[in-house]
Design a protein that fits this description.
- The chain has 288 residues and is an alpha/beta fold.
- Strand 7, helix 5 and strand 8 form a beta-alpha-beta unit.
- It is elongated.
- The chain is built from twelve helices and eight strands.
- Helix 1 packs across helix 4 and helix 11 packs antiparallel against helix 12.
- Keywords: Oxidoreductase.
Length: 288
């Protein structure tokens, strides 16, 4: 029989993961604990099972506990109270990308941290995308063995890292996902300056990004680079930079740093070029 999984902090990521594992037959859902009963009821409705609660109840020795609380709440009263119990669940894991399993040491006999590389802004969409999602974990060997088998059986991809490597790992996911959203917003803003309708701009940019990501999946970043900086078209680069800075005067620093980083990638790809100094001047000269 699959383990019974309790959830403390059934936010978007936790409820999607619990539903996905339950649908795959990898667990049975036990308590869904949230400080607000309405949140726990919403999680139960999404998952389709579970006991709504506002405080953790008793847990059996072979149960699992998923802690879906934000990083700065992982030491809140409910977690502290679990450490004082005489009977603890078999294993507990949290979903932080940056914090280690040691943060919940004492909550269960075995502990781990497990981070899914997936955006959970829309739980229904995220649930549909869970197959193939990468999970990066660290913690006690026994917990990792159980969780890894569970994730793989449900259709996920699994890897482990050392605890001290987690901040760098999490930084990589933030740059790849969160900062992509920021860049997309900036690209849409520039498209609006060109008079494109928001729907058309969003569709155009999405198609372009999908092609770029497909190229990146097959080769190193430098080898996937195209465009005027890579070609060494210094005149075009200067004109584009002027347009971008005029349209987004509050993002001049960001745009110039992106240009400099792209120039470095271009040189890595093709070697130094005769127009590189001119492009460097474009990205570093002060605006009047």
């Amino acid at each position: 029989m699959p383990p019974r999984l309790h959830v403390l902090g059934a936010g978007r990521a936790a409820r999607v993961l619990a539903r996905w594992l339950a649908d795959a037959g990898q667990c049975r859902i036990g308590q869904l604990v949230c400080r607000r009963r309405a949140s726990a009821e919403s999680a139960a409705a999404f998952i389709g099972q579970g006991q709504v609660a506002v405080r953790p109840g008793p847990m059996a020795a072979d149960d699992w506990l998923l802690i879906g609380l934000p990083d700065d709440l992982l030491d809140q009263h409910e977690v502290q109270e679990l450490r004082s119990r005489s009977e603890q669940p078999m294993l507990a894991f949290h979903l932080s990308g940056a914090r280690s399993a040691e943060l919940i040491r004492g909550v269960a006999r075995e502990v781990a941290s497990l981070h899914p590389a997936r955006a959970f802004a829309d739980p229904e969409r995220a649930l549909a995308q869970m197959p193939g999602t990468w999970f990066t974990a660290e913690g006690d060997d026994a917990a990792l063995e159980c969780l890894g088998a569970c994730i793989r059986a449900a259709g996920g991809c699994w890897q482990t890292v050392e605890a001290e490597a987690k901040p760098a790992y999490h930084a990589a996911t933030v740059v790849a996902s969160n900062y992509l959203v920021t860049l997309t917003g900036l690209a849409r803003r520039l498209a609006a300056e060109a008079g494109l309708a928001p729907e058309s701009a969003a569709a155009l940019i999405e198609v372009l990004q999908r092609g770029t990501l497909a190229n990146l999946s097959e080769r190193p970043a430098a080898s996937a680079l195209t465009g005027p900086i890579e070609r060494g078209d210094a005149g075009q680069v200067e004109r584009l930079q002027a347009v971008m800075e005029q349209a987004c005067p509050d993002r001049v620093g960001l745009l110039r740093e992106l240009g400099l980083a792209t120039l470095e990638l271009a040189i890595e790809r093709r070697g130094p070029g005769s127009k590189d100094a001119k492009m460097l001047e474009t990205f570093t000269s002060r605006s009047d």
